[in-house]
Amino acid sequence: MSSVFGVRRTTNVLSAPIDALDWKTATGRIREWADRRVSRYVCICNAHSVVTAGQDAEFGRVVAEADMATPDGAPVAWMLRKLGVAGQQRINGPDLMWKYCEQAAQGSESIFLYGSTEETLDILLARMREVFPGLKVAGAISPPFRALTAAEQAVDVERINASGAGTVWVSLGCPKQEKWMAAHRGKINAVMIGVGAAFDYHAGTISRAPLWMQRNGLEWFHRLCSEPGRLWKRYLVTNTLFVVLAIRQLLLQKTN
């Protein structure tokens, strides 16, 4: 896949193909697709995502077929550097969303928000109006925390398409948001980007790790301490699996 931002280049981290790219390329590709109103989806992949991609065949297919899969999480960016992608940065969901909104506020493009709760969306929209006065938010939907009927899904798709938004920022959590985006490629005429807890971070309903922790690859530890009951398995078990599988991949690369 090529664009004005270059030919797409991916490297497998464990079994997941992850894009080697910088912030300018990531936001530029999304903007290019949004301008053309093409139906694409972007996965933001951390250690949990790449491990799950190897354990869950459906999720692995969703990540493999994504139009872009960015290295979220210091371990994934580190692996790309070890695998030959010099200087690879961490391209994470919350920052990608905020950087993109800053750019969109300077132009005519509108965005759409899909996910989280009504309360979080209200706070987030108020903050966006304050930080990005020129940003056009074409709409926001907080879907119920259950499987939607076909009729409900059709209503959401129609509303998103009618809004004219170029991007849809999806905050449903992993792997739900990735599977939702894959199921709606070809139906939603916009770029869908799965950003996990970004809505809560920017609304302030969940506190984000201090910058020094983000820069030193410790954001996962901050989240674990904030929600140990819900996240202990993801960060302790899955991260350990990631380390083991990453070492195996690097050793196999050396012997080949």
Can you describe this structure?
- This protein is α/β, with parallel strands linked by helices.
- It has one domain: 3-Layer(aba) Sandwich (Rossmann fold), CATH 3.40.50.
- Helices cover 53% and strands 15% of the residues.
- It has helices at residues 23-36, 47-55, 57-64, 74-82, 93-104, 118-131, 150-163, 176-184, 198-203, 211-215, 219-226, 228-255, and strands at 10-13, 16-19, 40-45, 68-71, 110-115, 136-141, 167-171, 191-194.
- It starts with 9 loop residues before the first strand and ends with a helix.
- The relative contact order is 0.16.
- The model has no long low-confidence stretch (mean pLDDT 91).
Helix content: 40-55%
- Main sheet: strands, sense, barrel: 6 strands, parallel
Oligomer state equals single chain
User: What is the spatial order of strands in the main beta sheet?
Assistant: 4-3-8-7-5-6
Q: Which structural category fits the helices and strands? A: alpha/beta
Using the 3D structure, state the CATH architecture: 3-Layer(aba) Sandwich
CATH topology: Rossmann fold
What is Rg? 18 Å
Question: Strand-residue fraction?
Answer: 15-25%
